[in-house]
Design a protein that fits this description.
about 450 residues; Immunoglobulin-like; 4 domains; 4-stranded mixed β-sheet; 16 helices
Length: about 450
């Protein structure tokens, strides 16, 4: 009797703790062994838990106190591949193809996600038809054709507005409602003949339907993504200097709109800085750092992030490589004492890293026999034995053992956060490429032949 009572208490407790479930299915023959669940907070993913994948399926249990909001499932963390969904105190069940997650995801349960997906599909179809009429209006010079296109455009615009209003009404009271309202796009009442005037109107009204004080929106990546689209897609020119000027004005526009909203400012500025670092646009990195990020209140400045950005600047393509020093047979050596080669490859690796164990032999096979390339291989290690075994055949390399591993001053100077990391230098020790892997490294040298 007592044991039955304990079992009953356990079952009641379990049912109270795990009220809702997230169930997903990856439609792929690929080998996925686990997925990671993150909650989006202030436009950044915060880890919740992980789950094993069996036959493409995975499950998470949500407790009653799990906050509602936007969540993210990473199925390939190294490649930053993920799917987002809304959680609002209901079970969620979906399937997706990892090759096209956004276009293939289908929700079988979850009122929130089903209505948002229905809205997205419907409004995209209607907007696409309207856009095609606008493009045709740009191109046509025939008065009769233009008259007919204008008539069709006005009729199609009414359909777009009707679809928007239907879903705004249908989603009232749901989290999805916030995103549906904010997703409404600006379209001129009549088609524009001048593309420049059209673009100016889009830019002027781009944020008309976005409430920057909406906690649901600002806690997700929605507003931040909107900011990045505004800067990087709507403000482009044929000349880099003109593009920089346009994007500075766009950044000023955004920071003025959300002045004092420091969580939003921080999220936007950090995202934009990452994009400029990836693009190798050092002028915009310096501008955004000095004129915006560094004047945020100190509590909103991430010094580890700032240091990483500053390090990325030092190792950007076109920059002189940070010096590397080592001791060889009792003599002090450094990178800038090396000469007589057309190219140098600096690679950071570890003998305990599975990815390095496959990539480094590929590099050695490719480099073997090439006389005008010198490899400086820095092993970030915990102990000597594995490193000695792995580097035993790399006689033509400069092999450096660094037992500080991730605390290595060499790794920090190059901004290394993952291994293997590759840097290709020219004969003057200027960084000319930062390939992601050996295959990309090989393509770079093969294209230069």
């Amino acid at each position: 009797m007592f044991s039955r009572l304990l079992l009953l208490i356990f079952l009641i407790s379990t049912s109270l703790q795990a009220q809702y479930t997230l169930t997903g299915k990856i439609n792929s023959k690929g080998n996925f062994s686990w997925v990671l669940l993150y909650e989006i907070q202030n436009a950044k993913p915060v880890y919740v838990e992980n789950a094993n994948v069996k036959d493409g399926r995975f499950t998470f249990n949500f407790t009653k106190d799990q906050p509602a909001g936007i969540y993210r499932i990473y199925y390939q963390i190294e490649e930053r591949l993920y799917v987002d969904f809304i959680y609002n105190k209901e079970s969620v069940d979906f399937t997706f193809n990892p090759e096209d997650p956004a276009g293939s995801i289908v929700f079988s349960t979850s009122k929130e996600n089903k209505i948002y997906q229905s809205y997205y599909n419907a409004i995209s179809k209607e907007q696409k038809q309207l856009d095609s009429l606008q493009v045709a209006y740009f191109r046509s010079k025939d008065a009769k054709v233009l008259k007919e296109l204008k008539k069709q455009y006005i009729k199609q615009l009414a359909e777009v507005n009707k679809t928007q209003k239907i879903f705004e009404k249908r989603s009232e009271g749901l989290l999805a409602h916030h995103f549906i309202v904010a997703s409404a796009r600006y379209n001129p009442k009549e088609p524009e003949k001048d593309p420049k005037a059209y673009l100016l109107g889009v830019k002027e009204h781009f944020f008309d339907h976005v409430d920057f004080n909406d906690k649901v929106l600002s806690n997700s990546t929605f507003i931040n993504d909107k900011f990045l689209d505004f800067v990087f897609y709507l403000n482009q020119a044929n000349d880099q200097d003109k593009t920089n000027l346009l994007q500075k004005k766009a950044i000023e526009d955004i920071t003025t709109r959300i002045s004092g909203n420091y969580p939003l400012l921080k999220a936007f500025e950090e995202s934009a800085l990452k994009q400029y670092v990836d693009d190798g646009n050092l002028r915009m990195v310096n501008y955004l750092l000095k004129d915006h990020y560094e004047i945020l209140p100190l509590d909103y400045q991430d010094y580890a992030f700032k240091h990483k950005v500053e390090t990325e600047i030092k190792t950007a393509v076109g920059s002189k490589a940070p010096n590397i020093e080592w001791v060889e047979k009792g003599d002090e050596k450094n990178l800038y004492d090396l000469f007589g080669n057309d190219y140098y490859i600096v690679v950071f690796f570890s003998s305990s890293c599975p990815h390095c164990q496959s990539e480094m032999p590929m590099l050695h096979d490719f480099i073997k026999g090439i006389k005008n390339i010198k490899v400086i291989a820095v092993g970030l290690e915990d102990e000597r034995t594995g490193w000695e075994k792995m580097t035993a055949d790399w006689k033509e390399y400069i092999n450096i053992l660094d037992l500080e591993k991730w605390d290595s001053f060499r790794a920090k100077a190059y901004g290394v956060t993952e291994i293997p990391s590759f840097f290709i230098l020219d004969k003057n020790k200027v960084i000319i490429a930062k390939p992601d892997d050996v295959n990309e490294l090989k393509r770079i040298f093969q294209s230069a032949e």
